[in-house]
Specification:
10 copies of one chain form a homodecamer. With about 90 residues, chain A is α+β, with helices and mostly antiparallel strands. In chain A, about 30% of the residues lie in helices and about 35% in strands.
Chain lengths: ~90, ~90, ~90, ~90, ~90, ~90, ~90, ~90, ~90, ~90
């Protein structure tokens, strides 16, 4: 099941930059692992913003929430989730 | 080059339903053709709304505008375009 | 899987009232049937507005979209869908 | 009488994590107690956000305010309350 | 129980002015009757707008919705309802 | 002359709680005094929020501003003022 | 007493242009008369928009509402009223 | 003096397409003439929307308003004007 | 050339009150001087808010920006500028 | 390829002013260099705000993101990017 997720990151101003860098590194590993297992299907950078749009393919709402909640950068993110359905004009659905 | 595009359709209340059905059929053919040639990479239905999120892979801004402007449903759409860049955590970009 | 759905109805000004009454009657039958089979778990009226909040329990995004799209009042509705997950403080989840 | 309540939590950045964990534990006990006595009917997690939608069944406005105001996490919450009425299509109201 | 209700009226452009005048006359009688029985406590005009703020004192959500829904101008109104509770600084509550 | 005033309070996170309690006590005395002399006609708590709606009956704009500006909690408030006029359906105005 | 008033005009599409021109002429006479008697102190065009910002100097809320409500263009306007008070840095108030 | 102007066009649904085409042709001639005399410095299409961003270089507010108000498409436009000043990092201003 | 300018002040919480009082005093002197030379034509307090609406009469965009940028309170302000043109119903413009 | 970019700067309150001045100096050098090589085509100050509108002419989305992300003031900016296409009324496109 597919979801479009927008993530806007606001780095904490009062955190030691090296600590934040470690969090970002853990975030990247986390994202790469989920992409390898196919659940994080796409991740794109929004031009000009510390934000991304991603497509998740997961079992359902609960699984998606667990994945998002465990993002190392979750405490510094504003997240918006849009559930997606198959579009009648989707070539793959013909 | 990638763009996220949201399209919200507001069907014209005063149009003959059959005429609108013809426009929608042309829209579907148009979308399928662009998906076949790879420029309209993804199209997903927003759950509960007469809207879609799509990913376009085109040469640039001008080509995207031509494609969108020629959508048969363009006169009945509100469209928002978000330019996308490669994300540092994109598995494919490692 | 649970979703919170808000529906705002804007009756068409130029429709014969009796025809709209028939659509509303079909809407009610449709809602009652889905409540009987357990997929439309709750429906509440928003005080003062021609709107409702509902809870749907369905297999996933695609099923929810089919249900909403087939609402007789769908063409006269603005719909917002919020996917829900189990809350850690939910008594039933302890 | 029913109310839909949305709660968005913004954890205080400058609080000792253990202290905040204690507040969250008190919040959970508080929520479980109110669910047991039937006033806090439902609580669902909004996917991807530190937020919940809840349904309260209380005597009226004043009681609901007391309950919400005494939430241990109240100082870190933004709350929106929507009063609900019986919907004409509610199966239980036929 | 008290509620603050904002009503914004958008007169229908295509209605015979006399018919709309009759609806407004029925609206006024309806409002006066509810003020006499104490349920419509206050009604004030928002300066410069075809809108009012009103205070209702009713048994609860369902009664308020019935009252609002039966407003003759209801089909031409956008309504926002804010449930009110006793304020700790309210002189009458000391 | 009547005004509807909404006040949203955001307590300062970094203030000693006792000092803020003293400010709140002064605020309450201030509100009670103005209610006794009739200028602060009504004060209601917005359910679930650290906010109130109030009705002021004062000589005019300047007096209202002085009253609001001197609120002990003014520095921690967001205030919105709506000037009110007599409504043609007001029972008292018939 | 001073008020800042913003007026946004949306001309009715389905009205005979000459009839609308007559309404605009009446609007102009109305505005000129109020400027001559000092109650409509200033009127400025918002660059690029069929809108104006005006300053009214009137006895109070009720008078302002009567003036605005009697604007010939009132049915085609969206109006926002901001009550103004004397500013401590106003040269005239020193 | 420079201004950034955004123009959003909403074509009238009930107008004969040929008549609208004539208005658009007059609009184009109007725009080309102003570009030739240097007052309409830039005009860009917003990708995906019937909108443009333009840069005007005119004597001041009044001249800009006259130019915009005389746009053949003005009645079908929503316009937003942002006055621009010289930026300290502007190469030309060094 | 005329501009309507709204200024919203958010006092810095962590500044020594006396230092902020000095900045406010410089702001007042600055405003009085510009009013004396006719460029700061009007300044009004928005009732209930630490905000003002002002009318500036200056040579153009660049001069207005210099004036606003040099406001002692500029770092603590959110400013919105609306360029104004002569209104056809302005008595002075007849 | 052209993009309109709006940048709103919020200076960090808790940074040593001299350090921030150094960042601004680096920002200026960065902007001047990009203007010299033609990629940063225009930069204008938004009157009254610590903001600018700029026009970039770059190869595409990825290049624009790299340029924006490397802005010394990037951490203190909110950025909005609008992709632009050739307008049919653009004199240069005739």
């Amino acid at each position: 099941m597919l979801y479009l997720v927008r993530m806007d990151v606001t780095p904490p101003r009062d955190m030691d930059p090296e600590e934040f860098a470690r969090i970002k590194a853990r975030e990247k590993d986390y994202a790469l692992a989920l992409q390898r297992d196919g659940r994080w299907r796409h991740i794109w950078r929004v031009v000009g913003e510390y934000s991304n749009y991603s497509i998740f393919d997961v079992a359902g709402n609960d699984e998606l929430h667990r994945i998002l909640q465990d993002l190392p950068l979750f405490p510094y993110m504003r997240i918006a989730v849009t559930p997606l359905a198959t579009h009648p004009s989707d070539l793959a659905a013909q």
